[in-house]
Design a protein that fits this description.
about 220 residues, Rossmann fold, five-stranded parallel β-sheet, three-stranded antiparallel β-sheet
Length: about 220
């Protein structure tokens, strides 16, 4: 059954999924599920406890050291480990690399699938941002979007993000990592990165953040 209260935004990194999700949440008053943060949570715990054994990591999650806090004012979700807010830290490249490694494991995807499905009833509606939201996690969503952008543009955006954080980066290496991850995500056997059959594909390479939001809102309201 189609659910008009679920909107999915899929696509590779750097295409503007997170920014679009937050802007749409502000416009619609819906809650955002940043599914990538769940995989980054696993990557963070792997790094923190120096283990790649997911069953050990899952115990940490089950002990409720990890929790999510919903902010009704900005429809956003923050990730905490006990009293520590991890929302910004889990964005670093080391954690992202580990998250990508765990994302191909069936036991990880099965475990996080249940958590993601639990977000359906948070707030008035749900905007799910990820790589398989429209194909696997929320196939019943009425509104499905798949964003793309050139690897050059995505590398430029990532470079700006890192510079704002005071970090230096090599553009060539950054672009190579993006292309490598794209290939890994699109060719994996489990939940490959592909548009849902009924998704609307949008190239965000030459669209500003407000142009992109306006384009999606126009599609929804039409």
């Amino acid at each position: 059954m189609i659910d008009p209260k679920i909107l999915t935004i899929d696509g590779p990194s750097g295409v503007g999924k997170g920014t679009l999700a937050k802007n749409l949440a502000d416009e619609l008053g819906w809650t955002v599920l940043d599914s990538g943060s769940l995989y980054r949570m696993v990557g963070y715990l792997s790094l923190k406890h120096n283990t790649k054994d997911f069953f050990k990591i899952r115990k940490k999650i089950n002990l409720e050291e990890i929790y999510f806090e919903f902010n009704d004012q900005n429809s956003n979700i923050s990730l905490f480990l006990e009293e520590e807010d991890l929302s910004n830290f889990i964005r670093n490249e080391e954690v992202a690399k580990l998250a990508s490694e765990f994302a191909v494991l069936p036991e990880v995807r099965d475990y996080l699938f249940k958590i993601q499905r639990g977000f359906r009833h948070k707030g008035k509606g749900l905007i799910a941002d990820g790589r398989d939201m429209g194909t696997v996690v929320f196939p019943e969503a009425k509104y499905k979007f798949f964003l793309t952008a050139s690897s050059e543009e995505r590398a430029r955006r990532r470079e700006n993000q890192l510079k704002e954080s005071g970090l230096s980066v090599n553009m060539r290496n950054l672009q190579e990592r993006i292309m490598e991850r794209d290939n890994k995500d699109s060719s994996r056997e489990i939940s490959p990165l592909v548009p849902a059959e009924d998704a609307i594909v949008i190239d965000s390479s030459n669209l500003g953040i407000y142009e992109l939001k306006s384009k999606v809102i126009e599609i929804i309201r039409s």
